[in-house]
Amino acid sequence: MHLSRPQFVLVGRLIISAILLWVLMTRIGANWSEAIPDPTTGTIAWLIGAFALTFIGVVVSAVRWGAVLAALGQHPPFKRLLSLYLAGQFMGNVLPSTIGGDALRVSRLSRENGETPTTFASVVLERLTGWVVLPVITLTGLLVNPGLRELGRASAIAFATAAGTLLLLTVVLVLTARPGRGIESRLEHNEGWRRFTSAVRFGIQRLAHHPGATARILATGFAYQLILIAAALMAARALGLPAGVGPTALLAFVPAVLIAQVLPISISGLGVREGLFALFLHPLGVPRSQAIALGLLLYVLNLLVSLFGAPAFAIGQKTTAPAAA
């Protein structure tokens, strides 16, 4: 059977995920007893809290997307945006495929509003705000807790990830900041990197005239990432991680993990996320088995929340089938 290029990439990412997880699991060995906590009332309460915050994070993401759309002149109902966001989460996390959740959001909303360039730009800018916020949080965590800067390779990699991300963002902004005409037309006809840069330029030009909207988008972006860090803190408490893994440690290291796990290496960051948690948290006295368990727990929580998008995904499939036919 001949595989298309996207299908070949998907199979490759599945294989890499399996290899990374196998390598990490073999390092756990007989230490599962320390990685899996006792099902006490406290443990269950921490897990419920982490799950609730993970869901709230999705809601805040939809709020952020709505703020970007509003700045671009689009005002769809929030209920619809949340439904599309959940459907995208289901598509991207539960049904790994060659079509990501962001593409699903763009295709469905643009069919409804007839504004494909604007819709595409809104999703690109919504994601880009996360890349602005994450390195700032990591650098803040390293700044406020001097001890986190003395963890050798863990500190160096966290700092390099944040600094490298900011440098990359600066390059992107410099390349896309110059004014231009016909951007919406290029968004319609360009593909790949050119379409991405056109979307960024289009969004920046719109946001330049709405500084208040830009502030709201960034504030929502910070709120979303801090909610995810709070969920990670609750998950760490549920697993019984040492007290050294406190708020400032997670401020420094969780964003670095979130940045790295979106690299198109594995499926949903499997293996990458767990390996980085082991790297970052082991110098704080966390057994590697518990660090890997934290990464897997956060993945499972995200997966469970993504299941809420199954109805929206299925209904959308049914309503678009006649049009496709």
Q: Can you describe this structure?
A:
It is a single chain. This protein is mostly helical and 325 residues long. The protein has one domain. The protein has helices at residues 5-28, 32-35, 41-71, 78-94, 101-113, 116-144, 153-176, 183-189, 192-207, 211-238, 247-261, 272-281, 288-306, 310-324. Helix 4 (78-94) packs antiparallel against helix 5 and helix 8 packs antiparallel against helix 9 (192-207). The chain is globular, with a radius of gyration of 20 Å. Residues 320-325 have low confidence and may be disordered.
Overall domain count: 1
- Specify the structural class: mainly alpha
Number of helices, where a helix is a run of at least 4 consecutive DSSP H or I residues = 14
Major sheet: size, sense and barrel closure?
A: none
What's the order of the H and E elements?
HHHHHHHHHHHHHH
The general outline is: globular
Helix percent reads: over 70%
Strand content range: under 5%
Averaged pLDDT: 81
Low-confidence stretches: 320-325
Query: How many strands?
Result: 0
Distance between the termini: 26 Å
Rounded to an integer in angstroms, the radius of gyration calculated over CA atoms is: 20 Å
Q: What topology emerges from the helices and strands here?
A:
Layout lengths: L4 H24 L3 H4 L5 H31 L6 H17 L6 H13 L2 H29 L8 H24 L6 H7 L2 H16 L3 H28 L8 H15 L10 H10 L6 H19 L3 H15 L1
Helix pairs in contact: 3-4, 3-6, 3-10, 3-13, 4-5, 4-13, 4-14, 5-6, 6-7, 6-8, 6-9, 6-10, 6-11, 7-9, 7-11, 8-9, 10-11, 11-12, 12-13
